Structure formats: structure tokens, C-alpha cells
Amino acid sequence: MNEIRTFLLVVRHESRVLVADRSLVAVMVLTAILVLLGLYNGLDASQQREQTIAALLVKQDETRVNNVARLRRIMAGEEAPEPFSNPANPALVGGGQGAQLAVMPSLPLAPLAFGQSDLLPDHYRVSYRNKATFMYDAEIENPWSLLSGRFDLAFVLVYLLPLMICAMSYNLLSAEREQGILKLLMSQPLSLSALVLGKTVVRLLPLLAIATLLPAAVLLALRPDVRAPDQLALLAGWSLLTTAYALFWFALAAAANLFGRSSATNAIVLIAAWVGLVLVAPVLLNVLVAALSPAPSRIALATETRLVTIQGLNRYNELLSTDYRYTDKPELLLPQQGRFDVPARLRAFYLIHRDVDHEIEGVLAAFDRQLAGQQALVDRLGWLSPAVIFHEALASLAGTGARRHQHFKRQIDDFHREWRAYFEPRVQSGTAIQAADYSTMPKFVWQEAPRAETVRDLALRLLQIFLPVAVLSGLALRRLRRFSVVPT
Amino acid sequence: MKTLLIARREYVECLRDGRLLWAGGLTVLLLLAALAVGWQNRVAVESERTAAQQLDYQDWLAQAERHPHDAAHQGMHVFKPLPPLAIVDPGITPYVGSTLWLQAHRQSEVKFRPAQDATGLQRFGNLSMAWVLQILGPLLVIVLGFNAIAGEREQGTLRQLMSLGVRPRQLLAGKALSLAASLGTLLLPLAVAAAGFVAAGTPPEARGDTWLRVLALLLTYALYFSTMIFLVLAVSGWAKTSRIALVTLLAIWIAGATLMPRAASDLAREWHPSPTRVEFNRNLDDDLSAEHARAWQSHFGVDKRWGADLPLNRWGEALQVDDQAGYTVLDRHFGKLWNAFADQQRMQEWGGVLVPLLAVRALSMAVAGTDFAHHRDFSVAAEQQRRTMQDLISHDLIHHADPLGHQHFSYKAGPEFWATVPPFTYAAPPLGFALRESWRAQLALIAACLLAGVLALVAMPRRA
Predict the structure, then answer these.
(1) Do B307 and A290 touch (CB under 8 A)?
(2) Does residue B49 sit at the A interface (CB-CB below 8 Å)?
(3) Which segments cross the bilayer (chain B) (predicted)?
(4) A142: which chain B residues are within 8 Å (Cβ-Cβ)?
(5) Which residue of A has its CA nearest to B263?
(6) What is the predicted ipTM?
(7) Cβ contact, residue pair A378, B121, below 8 Å
(8) Among residues B133, B80, B223, B131, which one has the least CA distance to residue A148?
(9) Pick from A59, A217, B236, B415: CA 20 to 30 A from residue A488's CA?
């Protein structure tokens, strides 16, 4: 009971001191500004992405409606079909005219971290063309900006929050020891642990409120879909994760203080830790991961694609030198009793794309395996730096990380196969596309990765951050017993 | 004389101090690792690229007899060469592709950005000598020099120094010289090693330009580190205690190295917006179809492209008209996009006056040949190759207009025709190009250095 009372006394006193010397307020205001700026950028970008996708889906729907309407007019004899844009021709509809948009929807928590969203596309236009033609589109972005990185909330939390914590607590005990106040304090009925805890709490709580509650409140106010129960749970997970990361830095600061060196030494130790853990370790880890699981050669992929394309061109050379009979027999462009005379040349294109797909499948799979291998390494070696774990976890909660994109690519694989399977018999046997077919054609339906996976992932990352927190706290506790209140 | 004395004393002190050993040693280790990574990357990529490029052209020459337009669908691959200095500064290399597939009908974009084959860790930064020098270099200067003046003030030795009649300018020069000497001791051997590796990786015909580029790069970093030295001395001279100097300098460094580049790049995107992929494609498609419709109407008097109204024996001509009409539209749209990127970067280069990192980054990658201007130069050259190929094909098709009525693709070209398409040879532009393109960054860096120098001079103590 007494312990609690002294603890509260410490908290009250320390808050008064910090408010009076304005440093707490200054750091809080600065942090709040940075957090809001980062969040604004994230909100702005997710909104833009969502609007773009919505517009694309509307456009796709319009195209489908147009195709159906044109097909009806053609069948009614009101419009003449065109050779390269014919809604009845299965080779054209499956190839480009009816190409389906495959979209990875942005998650309600997307504004929390840009992740890889400025680099990896969130939609592809899938047709029966081979994957090398549509899978490697990327979002248009100035490479200079990609190099600089974005000013998002993840950046503020991963890079800047630790600095704020260090600035607040590098002299947690050392200042009072240097001023000789600690000696006086300790002559009172007050334990050192209550003092350290009280001082930490005064700094921790307001910072955490700004780093977690403020963004959460803004998100809840501006994005209604965050209010769904499962999203609220994820948001809580995010807050816990941020808290864990903040605790790591507080524990580090406390441990540094309890070694009993000067404030200046503490500051240098903390800044060195920041440089090492946040700036250098991730960059070195990136090199290590790339060396342990190197990307296959893209040049080899290009060469392979070209070689199989040549083989295809040779194999179907006869089909390609097709007749363009419709120029003098335009009625050939019309379906006749459900049949359509697919020009041999277009059939050849279909076959070449199919063959190329088949041949390069192995090469493309090697890229995916390698990336998955790198990701597994990052997960395994992430404990080397809490910044890495935290950064990865933020992107994965926001749904903008590499892992979700891999999941997206796997779904596109399946959809691409389904699409081809739908069109292959129609192209090969010359079955005309009917108006009704437009509503029964395969459609891409996004499947979110199983929730259990996300939760397991989050739990693992929390563990990976809490473990060093526990180690540092243990170290601090041990030092606490041997701590001398007078400068040595 | 006094200047040299100060410099010598300070330098010896620095050598005895553990700081140079620890901070310097770590930096040197990182730089060595970066050099090894850069070298290994380049060796792996370059030989493969050269081989692939040759193979590609051989296959083009040896292809079977086929209709030229089909050959255009097969197309050619061109691979962007990695400049020799990329082992020091890869610049935007991880974020731009290196492979272009030149095909019929449409300008392709450079594909396969290495960052797409990497995990999210890539976004923390790319280990290269340039990264270490630009980001961690200033920290090294801070660690070595934060107490250069403030420390003397604390210890009371500044009073003695002043009593000897040392002028502010002499004090600044001495301190700056000693810091420069410390940095030189650490970095110059590495610079020599890096230059050796760069030279070893350069084909003999490009050595002259490469040496000039190495020299320019050395000057660039000399200027950057001078700026940092002056800045550190300015703060150290201004601050009452070395603790205040250290905290202030760290705050400036963190803002300059992590916060400002991101903020500047976001600001530049607001100022000179670039389109999203969807917007870009939609605008390009709309303009292309309008331009194509106009060209077909004016040349052939028909409304529909590739329709039944135009006899097949004129399709070679049509292909030419269609392509030519597209070229101007493509130039306009890609030009606009690339100009937006360039404008975004230029705005940030001017920001280099206050945030030297922005200027040195732009200048360093320009000199290394890994910036956007060089990438654009390559893209333009590759597109030119595509157009050459397209024009030759249309021309050939005009001469071999369809003899067989509707058997449009019955004509087949052979090896003599394939040989008329020249191989793609690309030489990166010389240093002069890089210097012309980066004059803003040069000016900004010089201005930053002068500004820091003036600040340092003003901050030098006049009385103890």
C-alpha cells in the first residue's frame, strides 16, 4: 500500500517537473505533429488507391455492358462487327477485350503503413496472355521517391518514436545523480525501483497515448470500416505492438541509466543503439538475406521467355500465315448457330501464349520460391533488430507487405488458369461467345489470407519484441540492486 | 603557421582518442562490406547481360523465315548496362528495371525492378558506399568534431588559445584541416581501393570517362564532407557546452538524414504531381486512339483501323502511318511523365542548399551514371531501336504488298532482311552529360558548403 502511494507520489512529482521544464510538452507536441503528418499521408494514399480501384471496376463493368450491348446489336444486324474488336470472338474476348481485373483490396488499416504499396501493384489485368506480359507491371512512381521512402506513420513509429523515447529518458536517473538530488531522494522512504518505474511511466503513458490512441481515434473517425469487430481487434493488436516497441526503447534507456554512467554516456549509448538497430542492422540484414537466398536472374527469365516465344512462332508458323478471308467475306465475323470462325492467326496467338506460360512456369515459380525464402529468413533473423520486426508487422497489419502480395499472386495464378481453361475449348473449337456468357465467365474473387495466419503472425512478432524487452528489464533489475546513488 | 599548429595538435589528439578508432573503424568496415557487395553484384550482372544481349541479336538474325510483323511481335530484348561506378553508388538501380522488350505497336517500359524481388527490408536502404558516406558519414564527422571548440571552451583551453592571438579564421582553418585529415586518413585508402575496383570493371574504351567520373565523385564527396565539417564546427563554436553541441548536431543529422528526404520527396510529389499507372495508361490510350483515327482518316479516308475498307495490300503502308502517328503521342506522354519525375527531383536538388544530403545524393548518382537522367537516356535509345526496327519492317511490307489477296500474312522475310536491323549498341553518355544534367545539385552543394563555412566563421569565438 505504502509502495503504491510513494509510486504515485513519484509520478505526480515527476509530471510536475516535466511539465514545468516544458520538455515533456515539447516532445509530445512534436510527436503528435509527426504522427498526424504520417497518418495524413497514409490516409491520402489509401483513399487515392481505393478511388482508383473503384473507378477501374466501374470501367470494367461498363466495358462488359458495352460488349453485351454490341453483341446484341451485331446479332440483330444493327451493327457490323470489326475484325479486331468483336464481342463474339472468343480469341479476342479472352485475350484483351474482356480481360478481367484482379484486385487486392486495401485493408481498413492500410493508412497505418505504406509498406510495399508504392512498388507492388494492387491490381492486374488478367487475360489468357502469358504471365510475363501482365505480371510485371508496376505502379508508376518516381524511382527517386521510392529510394527516399515515404513519410508514413510506420516511418514515424519505427524511426522517430525511439528517438523521442531516448530524448526523454537518456538521463532518467543520471541527471538527478549528477545533481546530487538522487542521494537526497534515496534518504527518503522510497525504493529505487519505485522511482525508476514512476519516472518511466510519466514518460511512457503520454507518448503511448500519442503514438497509439491518437492514430486509432483518427482512423476510427475517418474510416467507418475500422469499426468492425475484427478490425478493432487488429487495431488493438497494432496498439499492443507499438507499445511493445516503445517498451523496448524505454527498457533500453532504463538499463543504460542503471549502469550508472554519466548522462552524456547514456545519450551516446542510446544513439549508437538507434543507429545500429534502426539504420544499420536492417540494411545489413537485407544484404545477408539477399546473399543467402539470392534472386534468380531476371535476364535469364527474359531470355527464356524470348526463346519459348520463338519456338511458338516456329511451331505455329503455318497458322500465323493465315487468311484474312473476312475482308471479302465480312459475314465470317458473325457467329453462325453458336459457332465462330476464329481466324487461324488469332488461334496461333492463343497457343503461343499458352505454351510460353507452360514453359516459363518453372522459372516464375523459382522467383516466388526465392522471395518466400527471403521472407522466411527475415522472419527468422528479425530478432536481430526490433525495428525490422516492427516494420514487417506494421506492413502486414496494414495489408501492404510483401507476404500479402505473394498471396495475391498465388490467387492470380489460379485465376489465370481458370480463365484459360474457360477460353481454351472455345478458341480451339470456335464456339461463339454469347451475351449470357458475359455473366458466367470466371471472375476474380479476392480471398483474404486466413485470419488465424494473421493472428499467429502478430503473436509471433509480439513475442519477438517482448523477449528483448524482458531481457533488458531483467538486466535493469539486476543493475538496480547494485546501483550506487552517488556518481563514482 | 598557427593554423597548421592547431591542425597538427588536434589531429594527434584525435588519433590518440578512441573515437577515431571505433567510429572510424566501424565506418570503414561498413564501407568495405558495401564495396564487396557492389563489386559482386556488378560482376554477376554484367557478364550475364553482355552474353544475353549478344545471344538476343544472334537469335534475331538466325530466326526462321516469317512475316516481318510476326518478327516484330517476337521483338528484341535490350538490357541496360550497369555503369562501372554503380559499385560505389547504385543510385536508383534497385527501383528501375534493366530489361526492355522491344515489340510492335507500343513503347515498352523497362521491367524487372530488383526491389520487386526483395523483401520489405529493402525499404530501409540499400547497402552501398554511397549510402554509408551520405547517411553515416555526417555522423562520423559529428562524433569526431562535436567538441572541437565547445570542448576547449569547457576545459578552459580556449581562453589560452585566444590569448595567443589566434584569429577566428585561423582557428576555423586549423580545426577544419585536422578534421579533414582525420577523415582523409580513414577514407582515402578506401577511395583508392574503390577506384581500383571501378577501373578493373571498366571496358578499356570507357576508361577515360570512368577516371573523370571517379575524380568528379571524389570532388563531390570532398565538398559534402567539407560542408559537414563546417557545420559541425559552426555548432561546436556556437554551443556553450559540448553536450549541447552534440545534441544539436544529432538532431540536425537525424532530421537531415531520415526525415527531410522523405518530407521533401512527398512535397515534390505534391508540387509536380505524376500520374498513377491507371491515369497514365488511360490518357495514353485515349490520345493514341484519337491520333490513330486522325491519321487513318487523313491518309486513307477510312474511319476504322484495320477494317475491311482498306485493301490488305496497303496494310504495310497502314502500319507505317499507324506507327508514325503513335510516335509523337508516345513522345508527348512519356516526355511529360519523365519531366514530372525530373521536376520532382530538381526541386529537391534545390533543397540541397539546406539539406546537403539531397544535393549530394543527386550529384553522386549523376556522376556515377545511375540517376534518372541516365536511365531516361537509355530508355530513349532503346525506344529509338524499336522504332528503327518498326520502320524497317513497315518499309519492307510496303515493298512486299500482299500478292495473294486475303492471304495477308503469306509473305515471309528471310535472313537478308533480319540483317538490315542493326544490333542495339548503347554507350552511356559521357561525364559532360551528367554535369549538365546535375548543375542544380552542384550549385546547391557549393552553396551549402559556403553557407556552412560562413556560419562556422561567424560562430568562431572572438573572445574566450
Answers:
(1) no
(2) yes
(3) 20-39, 131-150, 171-199, 211-232, 244-264, 439-460
(4) 265, 269, 274, 340-341, 344-345, 372
(5) A151
(6) 0.90
(7) yes
(8) B131
(9) B236
Between CA A25 and CA A169 the distance in angstroms is 14
In this predicted structure, the answer to whether residue A241 has a pLDDT above a threshold of 80 is: yes
C-alpha distance from residue B154 to each of A94, A364, B151, B239, B243 (Å): 79, 64, 5, 10, 10
Provide the grid cell at A21. 521544464
Q: What is the structure's pLDDT at A11?
A: 87
B337 contacts on A by Cβ (under 8 Å): 140
Which positions 264-323 of B are in contact with A (Cβ < 8 Å)? 264-266, 268-269, 274-278, 280, 304-308, 311-312
Residue A185 is predicted with a pLDDT of: 78
Q: Are B171 and B460 in contact (CB under 8 A)?
A: yes
Q: Element (H or E) spanning A216, and its range?
A: helix A214-222
Q: Locate cell 567538441: which residue?
A: B147
- Chain A CB contacts of B55 below 8 Å: 303
Instruction: Look at strands A100-103 and B76-79 and give their pairing.
Output: unpaired
How much is the mean pLDDT over chain A? 88
Which residues of chain A lie closer than 8 angstroms to B73, CB-CB?
313
CB < 8 Å from A in window 196-255 of B: 243, 246-247, 250, 254
Which candidate, B72, B78, B115, places its Cα nearest to that of B316? B72
Residues 6 or more apart whose Cβ sits within 8 Å of residue B47: none
Contact A279 B304 (CB under 8 A): no
> What are the tens digits of pLDDT across the range B221-275?
999 999 999 999 999 999 988 888 988 999 999 999 999 999 999 999 999 999 8
Determine whether the interchain pair A144/B139 forms a contact, defined as Cβ–Cβ distance below 8 Å: no
